Amino acid sequence: MSEQQGSNKKKKKQSLLPWVSKNHRLVVVNDLTFVEEKTWRLSPANVALSAASVFFGVAIFTLLLVKFTPLGRLVSNNPRIANKDMRKDLEKLYKELDSLDRELNGNVTYVESLKKLSSETFEYEKDMKKAETVEKPEAAKTFADVPKKTEETKQLLENVQTE
Predict the structure, then answer these.
(1) Are 133 and 67 contained in the same domain?
(2) Which residues constitute the domain of residue 33?
(3) Is the pTM of this model over 0.85?
């Protein structure tokens, strides 16, 4: 029995080498009519070459699919891919924030200038306060609100009082 086992091992080892070196035929036969539909002559080298080319073709297609479509963001753990979209969003938000900040600063300056205008005392107000402290007859008190700055205004006031 040991001789049979030894000869079986030799046959198995030897049977693989002739199969690799020989050509084979793949035939597609119609099941109903038993007519040959297609026939291919195959060698192990052609089969290996075809399988390798199909494998590399699928691998390249998958890499291109992952690289150039949104599918890559779902599959990949690469932070650069995910950060591109976040970077674009952040740049957009920074631009919007900057424009809002400029607008806010403009509004603050405007409000401050309005506050200055509303609380500022003008020259004619100072003159009015001086005129109120000095007592004048009733007719003069009605014109006390008008500032007395120039000679023309003084003459105008005198003309109105005399009339």
Answers:
(1) no
(2) 2-98
(3) no
